[in-house]
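In this notation, each integer encodes one residue's backbone shape. One such record reads:

___
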Amino acid sequence: MQKKLKRTLLRIARLFNESNITWGIGGSALLDLQRIPVEVHDLDIMVRQVDFMRAYQILDNLGVEHPKQAHFKFRTQLFRTYEIETCQVDLMSGMTILWHDQWHEFIFTKDHIGQVLEVDGVVLFLMKLDDWYQLYHWLDRPEKIRILEEYAHKVGLDLSQPYLES
């Protein structure tokens, strides 16, 4: 992960932790923190719905919010995009995605935290890889699916898919 992204993540994590926000890092940053080789271009952070306003206020004080155009495949209840120290940060809660003509909802809770990692004295909450494996299916990200499948095979990880339809 690039130094500026890491610095931004640690800054956000410190503030979220001080505010007792239940949060988790996902997306490419999650894969990178799990030592899965990927390029990280932004930070995808999920929070519990009850914590969204506090998280939103923190990010609002750290950076500039950028409106994101609506996309027909997404009905995420709470979503904001920020630029913080030239890094894009997506804050999400209540993710809803159209996949195979059906709406699928992912509600983040503390049960979606798969690992707690300390980096430079700051606690990071990493989401579960199998949740992102599921989300990458819904998001139609075949390259990320392939990367996760290769990693899972290599380390003997079961990527269960409780939500996937046959």
Summary: The longest strand covers residues 78-84. The longest helix spans residues 3-18. Residues 3-155 form a domain with the Beta Polymerase; domain 2 fold (CATH 3.30.460.40). The helical segments are 3-18, 27-33, 52-62, 129-138, 142-155.
